[in-house]
Design a protein that fits this description.
This protein is 52% helix and 8% strand. By secondary structure, it is mostly helical. The protein has a domain of 82 residues: Arc Repressor Mutant, subunit A. The protein has a two-stranded antiparallel sheet. A hairpin with a 7-residue loop joins strand 1 and strand 2. Pfam families: HxlR.
């Protein structure tokens, strides 16, 4: 079993390092807010697999997503700086989305979370 090492960056004696306005909790909470939403992770993982995608490709590749929710989540991810929107100014309209450098930087973290989930599966006998 892997041992988590948590004491290197967050000293226990200084709670402001964890809980202050610029503390660890604030930063992690901000990132979690950026990726919270039913369709945000599928959008990010699709863009990680493909360099750029159009809205119609998301609609085909993510079952059950509505156009409204796709548009909303794309706008939020763009506003948070995780994806970029490129409008080609053509008729008919052509718009493509891709990960920004921040979005690409987030992907190894999301992959690590995936591995954590695989390494520590949920015990169905334990109440949550």
């Amino acid at each position: 079993m892997k041992q988590a090492i948590t004491h290197f960056k967050v000293p226990v004696e200084d709670t402001s390092t964890c809980l202050g306005a610029d503390g660890s909790v604030s930063h992690v909470s901000r990132v979690l807010r950026m990726i919270t939403g039913r369709w945000k992770l599928p959008i990010l993982f699709r863009l990680f697999a493909e360099p750029s995608l159009r809205a119609s490709q998301f609609m085909r590749g993510i079952p059950d997503i509505s156009q409204k929710m796709l548009t909303q989540h794309l706008r939020e991810l763009e506003s948070d700086g995780l994806i970029s929107r490129h409008d080609f100014q053509e008729q008919p309209p052509r718009v493509e989305y891709s990960l920004t450098s921040a979005g690409r930087g987030l992907m190894p973290i999301l992959m690590a979370v995936r591995e954590f989930s695989r390494d520590y599966p949920v015990d169905p006998t334990v109440g949550h």
